[in-house]
Design a protein that fits this description.
With 79 residues, this protein is mainly beta. Helices cover 0% and strands 58% of the residues. Strands 1-2-3-6-5-4 form a 6-stranded antiparallel beta barrel.
Length: 79
Amino acid sequence: MQDRRQDIREKVFLGGVAEINERRSTMDCVVRNISDAGACVEIDEVASLPEKLSLHIPRKGRSFLAEMIWRQANRVGLA
């Protein structure tokens, strides 16, 4: 499979929080890799994630508005 990413992803193992419904609902997740343009996130309830969400990474002290690009098993690709 050809990697179509524009930026190199940094492999990480960070706790994250997927915030949906204008932060009224949250789901814990694990960020597996990240770049300025996106991230791969592992989450238990992939099926219930909307196409657009906010990803909060407490350890980095940052939040990102993200759009789901792909989903596979318990992982999603965000941009």
